[in-house]
Design a protein that fits this description.
With 460 residues, the chain is of the alpha/beta class. Helix content is 38%, strand content 22%. It contains 14 helices and 20 strands. The radius of gyration is 23 Å and the shape is globular.
Length: 460
Amino acid sequence: MITALDPVVSRNPADPSDVVVRTAAPGAFAAVDTVERARTAQPGWRLGGAAARAGALGAVASAVEAAADELAALAVREVGKPLTEARAEVARTAAIWRYYAEAPYAAEGSVHEPAAGAGLLLTRRRPHGVAGLVTPWNFPFAIPSWKAAPALATGNAVVLKPAPEATACALRLAEIVQQAVPDGVFTVLPGGASEGNAVVSAADAVSFTGSTVVGHAVVARAAARGIPVQAEMGGLNAAIVLPDADIATAAAHLAAAIAGYAGQKCTATSRVIAVGAALAPLREALAERLRSVTVGDPADPATACGPLIDERARDRVADSRQGLPELVGADAPHDDGWYAAPALVTDVPPGHRLLREEVFGPLAVLLGAADLDHAVRIANSTPYGLVTSVHTASLDTALHGLDHLDTGMIRVNAPSTGVDFHLPFGGSKASSHGPREQGQAALEFYTSSRTYTLAPALSP
């Protein structure tokens, strides 16, 4: 755990001897001061008008595009993201900023007639003030952006507390954003739990992405203060494969969702549920696909599965698969980085951690189901409810699954991974708390609705 006296140290997970950044953790009091400076800067940012905010967000998008190669290389080095995925994340980051650059011009309320008499009734949405953002390391540019961009577009100031493992990426993003916005409007606060707690205790609205345990603590602290809070937490995502599915295509999608970026995505597939006659051919096809996944140096464009973020993450994957029969599995391919080869395990006993906990690695369980209803019950049997993928050639079957699955997102004939940033993102049960992220939902979260009654003045 990082304390206020410890430096923040971020290492290259492919080469832990490579220190990407070392910086001081400012501590809780400095974090509160940072929020107060942001609160002082926020009114001027809001009153600067729609054109100024739209122009600033558009400038950020252009600057991200101009620095795309540099940013992708930094993500590869600091968080071990395979180069192809890093490039895609940077492109998505620019698109997010450009999408929200249009938001300041959108209508922010409505006008109504009163039920009786003269006058007008108005609704408007106003920014909260300072948005405190606590973000993870696995999407070091995209997640801070899809939180910060709508917050800024609606007139809030932002204080971002990134995960320590993504400190360099966050600081570089801050350099880009700060070139486009006034002083104090966007600040990155390096650090750990002390700084994060301080931001949650001082900001006017909080958006969190991270572990379930920490997320619940953030929600409780924010709720006690009576401020808006959203939390995106864990996932234990299932893929349901029906006998009529294109098994080869489904296996390709599943392998990518299990092993891509070493399974370090909240939307990664952790459980594969094969229905009836799909089990035998899927077992063979998926095992073959996973064996062909390229594991290695994330800077190599051919790599799909790079290192785990740190030594504890690597050991957690190894411990989780220990003693289980493996259809696919191997030892770590490198001694100098925190690597784990993709694994597909079977015969997992009821109550095993792989059926109830998020491991966050390139590891999945293969399960059989008698029919679709049975598969849905299995998929719904965990505390989490983020995303489920359903693979079938039947529209009726897909719609049946849509009706009965209790996850916030359902992807038909597609990997469980993948985000459409212009649509709401979020889950159910222990996966999410509060309003959705992204799309128009984010603009609503970062503002509050006010109702105005305009009655005519009485004649003297």
